[in-house]
Amino acid sequence: MTVVTSSNLRPHKGRRRISKSSRSGALPVVLVAIALATFCLAAMVLHHAASTVGSSGSGGGRGRVDDVDLIMQKKFGNTVVRGGNKGIGGILKKTTSFAKKSQEYVSKKVVTRPFKVAKKLVEEVEQSFAGSLPRPDEMERVGDKSSAYRRLRKEFDERFPDEPWDASWTPEAEADTDAHRRRLELMKELRKRDYEPVDFDNDSDCPPTPSPDYPKAFRMEKIIENWNPDDTKPRKKIYQGICRFDYVKDYEKIMAYRNAEKPFVVRDDPRVLRTVERWNDPTYLHRLLNEKTHRTEYSLNNHFMYWNMGMARRRPGKHGGGGGGAPKGWKPPTEMIEMSYPQWFEKANVTDDKLGPDNPHWYFRLIGCGDMRSCDKKTNSESLFDELPFFQPQESVYIVEPKAQRGIHCRFGMRGVIAENHYDGSRNMVALLGGERRYILAHPDQCTPLYLLPKGHPSGRHSAVDWSNPDWEAFPDFAGARANEIVMQAGDVLYLPTFW
What are 269-289's pLDDT values in tens digits? Predict the structure, then answer.
């Protein structure tokens, strides 16, 4: 499965971005786009437990702490006394996993009954609280606070154990753990091949600060002739032109290139690998997403051209002309439908002969709304803020301006799916959580030879050229456009400046 996350940050002024992505290698792909949101202190999470944990399923706004009181009163009436360090109070403190965080509640309600009865009570209390307390990486304002989700995470967090989380950890300290070493072994299994750059060296071409001619660029004609976008068979050599940095070893380079607004790839961030490990479990996403339907794009072939009639003027225009508007006879290139993750997975998990470029394809999508106002709350997947904590709306390597929050957009694409060439008016961080995803990138100064559709067109800011079958005569400058490519693999995060 390919999973991609991207974070839409506030635009960097004065640039235009163009990017082309196509899918190669394994099964599906998820693209998760996150913008920036309002900043919220992580310290607020801990005291939030008393007011919100377990709120789903309890009437009248009663939380799980009150539920514990009810369990005690039901078993023993109103015969309750304060507990101390010894006796039943001590048992509760030592036995329950939530004692340290909810000690003020647990120690006030203790019964005077024999040891066996008290032990049974402890088990019921633990079961009531199981998985319902916040995790250290949660944010108070965004994310899924339901007990059902927290229980699911507790189950899988125990399946994939981690060292106790510490907010003060440096990247070096977090990487020097048994859990991270275990995940690096998993990455060796998920990254099935190496791609050799035709003319690029990740050491000499990636100094501490980017050179004036970074990134390297090549003729578009060479890139496409070497590897046609419709062909999902990997190539041994590619026209790579951007750096791939190790999150721990190259942290200073990462910040230098990001601040210089240059594209690059980050590899093996311990926080990203946690999600990679969990999402590559064969059962996790099925249980997380279950039968709830989500927005899905449907295409008769493997090409997905974005369109929006609200962007088009209501008058005819020529294809690629300067007048804008939908061309006469124009029809939407894709159809918007709804389906569940299991339904989409059944269509994606098929043999190659059913996934050719001329066969129907589906592009499954999740949206985590957060503070985004213009968002479909019916299909909201708020748990994305918990699943991808490295993309939470707070300043980090990936989030430049947290106040520009636009939610999290997560896409699952079948093998061979092509998101047609386009630019975005914002910074992007794209994280791949499984499989492979190929990007063809061009500098904003290449807009003209890429023949972008006009602003008023339903697919404005997208290239009018079919990159899989370019008409060299109709678009003569396209062959000489300057670009490069990169194949992302599990655990990679791609930074794309505005308008690339």
Answer: 999 999 999 999 999 999 999
